[in-house]
Design a protein that fits this description.
With about 120 residues, this protein is mostly beta strands. The chain has strands spanning about 5, 10, 15-25, 30-40, 45-50, 55-60, 65-70, 75-80, 90-100, 110, 115-120.
Length: about 120
C-alpha cells in the first residue's frame, strides 16, 4: 500500500487546513488509518485514527474538538480536517495504515506516507 499525503502548508493561528491521505490499494477500505505528527526535536505522536469501517475514531487530547478524521472509501482517501490551529500544531504530519485494527502507536502501523508539513504562525 502506498500512501500519499497532501494539503499541508502555512496558516495563521486560528485557521484551518484539510490534510488528505490517498492510498494506492483497492483494498484500502480494509485498513485502519492513523495520523501522526512529528514536531522538531520531538517524537512522532499519535494525532487521530479511524477504523476500517469509519465507525470508530480516536483523537489525542491535544487535538480533540479541533480535528476531525474521516474517510471516503470511494476515493481511497482519509482526511484530517484541522481547525482552530495553534502554533504548537506545527509539525510534519504522516498518515499510516494497517489491517490489524486501530492503534495509537507508531509500531502498530506497517505502511506510511512521506509526510506533509504544517506550519502555524502566531
Amino acid at each position: 500500500v502506498q500512501l500519499v499525503e497532501s494539503g499541508g502548508g502555512l496558516v495563521q493561528a486560528g485557521g484551518s487546513l484539510r490534510l488528505s491521505c490517498k492510498a494506492s490499494s483497492r483494498t484500502f477500505s480494509s485498513y485502519a488509518v492513523g495520523w501522526f505528527r512529528r514536531a522538531p526535536v520531538k517524537e512522532r505522536d499519535f494525532v487521530a485514527g479511524i477504523s476500517w469501517s469509519g465507525g470508530s475514531t480516536y483523537y489525542s487530547d491535544s487535538v480533540k474538538g479541533r480535528f476531525t478524521i474521516s474517510r471516503d472509501s470511494a476515493t481511497n482517501t482519509v482526511y484530517l480536517q484541522m481547525s482552530s490551529l495553534k502554533p504548537e500544531d506545527t509539525a510534519v504530519y504522516y498518515c499510516a495504515a494497517d489491517t490489524d485494527g486501530l492503534g495509537r502507536y507508531s509500531y502498530e502501523y506497517t505502511y506510511w506516507g512521506q509526510g506533509t508539513q504544517v506550519t502555524v504562525s502566531s
